[in-house]
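quick one: oxalic acid bound model?
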Amino acid sequence: MNAISKDVPTAPALGSAGSRLAALNEWVAQVAALTRPDRIQWCDGSDAENAALIERMLADGTLEKLNEQTHPGSYLHRSHPDDVARVEHLTFVCTRSPEDAGPNNHWMAPAEAHAKMDALYAGCMRGRTLYVIPYCMGPIDSPLSRCGVEITDSPYVVANMRIMTRMGAPALARIEREGAFVRGLHSIGELDPERRFIMHFPEELTIKSFGSGYGGNALLGKKCHALRIASHQARSEGWLAEHMLILGIENPQGETHYVAAAFPSACGKTNLAMLIPPQGYRDAGWKVWTVGDDICWMRPGADGRLYAINPEAGFFGVAPGTSSKSNPNALATIQHDTIFTNVGVTADSQPWWEGLDNGQTPVTDWRGNPYDPAKGPAAHPNSRFTVSAKQCPSYSDKAEDAQGVPISAIVFGGRRASLVPLVFEARDWTHGVLVGAAMGSETTAAATGAVGVMRRDPMAMKPFCGYNFADYFSHWLSFDGAQAQLPKVFHVNWFRKGDDGKFLWPGFGDNLRVLEWMIGRVKGEAGAVETPIGHLPAPTDLNLDGVSLSDEAQAKLFGFDHAGWSAEFASIGGYLDEYGPRMPQALKDEQQRIAAALAR
Ligand code: OXD
Ligand code: MN
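yep, here:
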């Protein structure tokens, strides 16, 4: 690496000593010497800084202004058409030993990965500004939060990080206090898919990303830090970093239970997190509060319960399908001060996507071409909105609580057209870990590759766990100590289809009926039927007032297909074996116990 240049600006002086920022200053100087930017800007997160960035992006076409009357303060970004999703095949976990990354990750030796990335970074910021973004994942004063610094040459990334994290001066002050932070280096390079890599070095708390401006590859606080690096950190520090939404369910008596739920990308986490109760429930006084829609950090509190924070400050949600039926709260949230990426546009510059039911029609597609339905959708299927969580009408006042919220239930779920019933409850924690480990789902547009193919996606962490899944399951099992007051674990499937290929369950607000049953189980009040795969409700155990289900729907949503589950458990056994001797015996025993019960 080149010598450190004398005129590299250092972190704005904070407290008295400033010395705890020496490592940060030195790293910035080293990166500048390698990447050769024209300018360096330390981001303070202020409104003035953001306004100047937006001006610059409007001038160079990175952003387009949307209709100020209908969508004040909102902008459209069109990405490079080859840069629209996470790239799992180009994402690596670079641990010293390949076994520590596990069969669930692509692995590269750290020295080789550093060399490859540093060669790409050499001189890559010439003619550009290098932005230094200090950020905090989680409420700024929470002991559960962790800080990072992202260096990027993309002003679009800065504007998004400002929404998605607590970014700027307060984060820098915390970094100065703690002296520790995750280092993330990002350059969009030339946006060439052949020169694109997302590398993680969990043992060095370091991320290196090159060649993509897409959220999951470029907003390094999100998937790279808050999941891949944090999962590794969490393992050594005794907590959990999970791909889960967090919501609060307030019953008519004013009691609120918090639920954390893991679903693979683009399977409705944002919709569930912002659920609006059906009319009958609203009339009775039920309310649902949003704490987070994508990531959950949890750790045991003094009382043995798991307490959770949402490390993010905003939503990076999938736009298509967001409508007044599926998610009125999201529509209200994104009415102003929102960055839209790769959506269509109407004649009067309003954002538009497939499923939006506001009577508008698009004239321009996500590539900026005149919209022609014969050439594909107006909005890219993975088009997104970035918006502050504070704009959400259902945002929980506990979301900013430094101690987090106590979790009563953990829910796993996937897209399963067949076999998997609407809901079942695990018998105990070990069984619950197996239910999470065995999760399967049909793939979606959130990652490049074929859509609709069933794959195992344990705890919705397949693309995000920064270490060997076998060790991850052991870590989950380790929470079951003598003092633990662990949440109950459930599995749901909103996506079961009938013989005609149509969904059998109405979903959206009606999912509260299932959540109410879970809370009833937590309180020991709701009924269930015992089966080898867990406790299933009978249709009469759920409040189905106002829902009409055909006989086929009832049978499939609440039924248990013995032969189908025997085959599923054989497949789960094969999947666990792929991890070899590191797979915890307790999980294998649990799988075998259930397989044996199914064989009877
Ligand atoms: C996301 C994802 O963007 O999971 O949240 O891909
Ligand atoms: Mn996600």
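The domain at 241-313+396-599 is CATH 3.90.228.20 (Phosphoenolpyruvate Carboxykinase; domain 3).
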